[in-house]
From TrEMBL:
Organism name: Paractinoplanes atraurantiacus
Ranges where the HTH cro/C1-type domain occurs: 13-56
MF GO annotations: DNA-binding transcription factor activity; transcription cis-regulatory region binding
Keywords, in A-Z order: DNA-binding, Transcription, Transcription regulation
Pfam families registered for this protein in UniProt: LacI, Peripla_BP_3
Name of the protein: DNA-binding transcriptional regulator, LacI/PurR family
Upper classification of the organism: Bacteria, Bacillati, Actinomycetota, Actinomycetes, Micromonosporales
Residue ranges occupied by any HTH lacI-type domain in the UniProt entry: 12-66
Entry superkingdom: Bacteria
Length: 336
C-alpha cells in the first residue's frame, strides 16, 4: 500500500521499512543485499514491508557498501545487422536475461565490431560499470578476454577459444552434433555429402567442419559465415563443382535456408534429390519448405551455465570445472 505521505515526502527509507517490518535496520539491509543470514520469518516480514511501502534500494549507496554494481554485460562481437538477423543471438539474450532477472541482476547488452566500438567497450568494462562480462561470438585469438581478466573483470565466453586458453567458457558439442548429422545422412544411403562451413576463425565453425570430416573425410566443402547469403553462394559453388551431390550439411540453419532456396531454383527436390541438414534448431526450421532437419543446441542451458560460472567467479568461489561442453541432439524433419 502506498500512502499519501509516501507520495508527498519522498521515497520510503530503510528505517521506515524496518519499522513497518518490526526488525532492525541491519536485517532490512541484509535482505536487500541478498544475504542468507536472515531467518525466513524476518525475511518475509521485510519483503512484505518493502512491497507495502514501495521501497526501492538506493543502488548508488549499495554499490559503495558492497563494491557491486549488480550489472552484468552481455557483449556480442558482431555487427548490429548480424545480431538482429540471426536467431541464435536473440535466444541467448533471452536465456541469459531470464536467469539474471531471477537473481535481481541487470543485463547490459553491448554490440561491438568496429575498432572504435571495441575501444569504447574496453574502457566501459574496465571502469567498474559492471561486475563481469559474458562474451559471445569472439573470432580468432581475440586478446580482449585476457585483457579484461588482467584488469579484474570476470569473464565467461560462449564457445571454446580457438587457441590454448585456461579461461572459462560454455559451449555446445559442435563436433559431436555435426558428426551425428552427417552419420545420419550416411545411414540413409547418401554418399555424395557436401558441407557448407561456418567461419573458421571461430570454434563453432571449426568443430562443425571437423564433425563432418569425421564421417566423410576429405569431401566437398564450401565456406560460409553463418549468414543466409553465404549459404546460398556456397550452394551455387557446390552445384557447379559437384552436380551429382545428394546431401548437404550446413553449419547453421541460416545457411541451410540459403542452400534450400538455391536448390529449389535449380530444380533439385529436397529431400528426394538432395537431403539438407542445418545446425541450431532455430525458428527458421519451421518456416522452410520442407521443414529443416537440424542439430539442436541447448541454448537455455548454455545461458544458465554461463551465468553460473560468471557469478561464481565474481563471488570468488570459482568451481573446479570452468569449461563446460553441453550435448546436442539431431531433430529430424522433412528436409532429410
Amino acid at each position: 500500500m502506498t500512502t499519501e505521505r509516501n507520495r508527498t515526502t519522498g521515497r520510503p527509507t530503510l528505517e521506515e521499512v524496518a519499522a513497518r517490518a518490526g526488525v532492525g535496520r541491519g536485517t532490512v539491509s541484509r535482505v536487500v543485499n541478498g544475504s542468507a543470514q536472515v531467518s525466513p520469518r524476518a525475511r518475509q516480514a521485510v519483503e512484505e514491508a518493502i512491497q507495502e511501502l514501495g521501497y526501492v534500494p538506493n543502488r548508488a549507496a549499495r554499490t559503495l557498501v558492497t563494491q557491486r554494481t549488480d550489472s552484468i554485460a552481455l557483449v556480442i562481437f558482431e555487427s548490429g545487422e548480424r545480431f538482429f538477423a540471426e536467431p541464435f543471438f536473440g535466444r541467448i539474450v533471452q536465456a541469459t536475461s531470464s536467469v539474471l532477472v531471477a537473481r535481481n541482476l541487470q543485463m547490459v547488452l553491448m554490440i561491438a565490431q568496429a575498432p572504435e566500438e571495441r575501444r569504447r567497450l574496453e574502457g566501459y568494462l574496465t571502469r567498474q560499470h559492471v561486475d563481469g562480462a559474458l562474451l559471445l561470438s569472439l573470432h580468432g585469438d581475440d586478446p580482449l578476454p585476457a585483457v579484461l581478466e588482467e584488469r579484474g573483470v570476470a569473464t565467461v565466453r560462449a564457445g571454446r577459444p580457438t587457441y590454448a586458453d585456461r579461461g572459462s567458457y560454455v559451449d555446445a558439442d559442435n563436433r559431436g552434433g555435426a558428426r551425428e548429422a552427417v552419420s545420419y545422412l550416411w545411414s540413409r544411403g547418401r554418399r555424395r555429402i557436401a558441407a557448407i562451413t561456418g567461419p573458421l576463425d571461430m570454434a563453432a565453425g571449426i568443430g562443425r567442419l571437423e564433425g563432418y570430416r569425421d564421417v566423410v573425410g576429405d569431401g566437398p566443402v564450401a565456406f560460409g559465415d553463418f549468414s543466409e547469403e553465404s549459404g546460398a553462394a556456397a550452394m551455387y559453388r557446390l552445384l557447379e563443382q559437384y552436380p551429382d551431390l545428394d546431401a548437404v550439411f550446413a553449419a547453421s540453419d541460416m545457411m541451410a535456408a540459403g542452400a534450400l532456396r538455391v536448390l529449389r531454383q535449380h530444380g533439385r527436390r529436397v529431400p528426394d534429390d538432395v537431403a539438407v541438414i542445418g545446425f541450431d534448431d532455430s525458428v527458421i526450421t519451421r518456416h522452410t519448405e520442407p521443414s529443416l532437419t537440424s542439430v539442436d543446441q541447448p541454448i537455455a542451458e548454455m545461458g544458465r551455465e554461463m551465468v553460473r560460472l560468471l557469478l561464481a567467479k565474481i563471488d570468488g568461489d570459482e568451481p573446479a570445472e570452468t569449461q563446460v561442453v553441453l550435448p546436442t541432439r539431431l531433430v529430424i524433419r522433412g528436409s532429410a
